[in-house]
Amino acid sequence: MCHDPSLEFQTYSIVARDGKTGELGVAVQTHQMCVGVAVPWLAPGVGAIATQASTNIRFGPRGVDLLGQGLAAEKVLHALIATDAGAKSRQLAIVDQEGGAAAWTGEQCIPFAGHMIGAGFSVQANMMLRTGVVEAMAEAYVHAQGEFSQRLLSTLKIAQEIGGDIRGMQSAALKIVASEAFDQDGLAQVLPRYDLRVDEHTDPLAELERLARLRSASLHSQRGMAALQAGKQKMALSLWEEARAMAPELEELAFWQAINLADKHSEYPGAAKILKPVLDHQVNRRDWIDLIKRLQQCGFLENEGTAEYLLQAINA
Q: Residue 7 — pLDDT band, cuts 50, 70, 90?
């Protein structure tokens, strides 16, 4: 059998279903580039899989397909392992849409290796510097607070704090998908909530945490847009404020919040209040101003007064 070291993701990860939202997620870190391309496999409304150690890539698509047919996590795991001649060197973890979890650690996985299953999750690790990693990960996840993404990443951080991969760190990934395959309007939810990768970094977990914060802020802003369209302006403004506070470096959030508030709802003073403080501190302030003019020129703005008012307010 051909030995391909590029597929041997000796690593630690967590696979979980959020009990509150039903979202499915995988978070992983290793000392090897591009862990996010091979280890996590997920489908909204179906399940989540992590295939690692001497990684069998086929476990990903095959496992998701079996979960999609309605098989429980444990049955899918047994089916995959039973057909794999290299099962002794594999590590595999699966969580189905009902929260059922199953995991496998082959006897030839490089020590220290093991897994631990809990309610709606599985943590697994191999080639760890010392023992106790999976136990610490499980305890950390059970007691973690905050959003689903934060709880997943806090589990990885604990693993690293007690030693992590014996080789150190290099790449990390976080992927989260929706609880259902279709949204309330019947549209397929094919895009993940989070699909973040750090492929080469001295501290990939810190960088992944930063990216997750920015992504969370963007999702908050999107929910605000949806609330505004539904006529819930007070909720929208609250979500937008939270988003800007979470990621003050993302001027893009304030820009489109202000544009939508002014153009779709004629809330000019409120829009200017959001936009002006942000642009006042931007080195490329003139570029953002020019963008407002271009939006007007190409017909993107429905209200003829939007651009004029915002430009006057910004320059005041």
A: low
